[in-house]
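Re-run with default settings, no changes from the original entry. Doing this only to confirm the output is reproducible before filing.
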Amino acid sequence: MCMMEKKPAVKADGLVEGKDYIVAYSNNVNPGTAKVTITGKGDFSGKKEFSFVINMKKGDFSEVGITIKDKNYIYKVTKTGNKFGEVGEVKVIGLKKKSLKKINIATKVTIGGIKYKVTSIGVKAFKGNKKIIKLTIGKNVKTIGAYAFANCKKLKKVTINTKKLKKVGKKAFFRKGGKNISFKVPKSKKKAYKKLLKKAKTNKYVVK
């Protein structure tokens, strides 16, 4: 993203910039505290520094709690991010593209020029979906909400890539009918994730 330098005017009564003094700016592109330095020249000596604040405009940052979308999914912002390098966090709360059969919960997404880590899957996010057959969970997901994939009867395969998973909500993968779900998980987390799935009252499944 190309940003313009912010250069507030500096005037010294009776003096001419370039002849009697030099003005230099620093940290004056992105939002935050910038600095202007005035240095005497010719018959004038000495140096003076001032600071000024560059504020973000609406649209340059996201707010916690707002809903955002990409072409396939709907998210809720759980940690603010901005266009100047601060990475936010989101949870997936549903589908925008209802026809999807293969769900891919990304590690990161960029929406509106702001980057986000996808750290959770919301309560009832995909509950009762009749089309999903495959699910891949990205490396930043820490929690899966209660009933997130409950009664997704065609879901057959779940690949969990994250090693950060701490909680699987109640009956997140519970279903009445349908075949067993095959869970593929990181080898180092197999024992721990088996416990999480069991505690969540997951039924009809196998962990590989």
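The mean pLDDT is 93. DSSP finds one helix and 15 strands in the chain.
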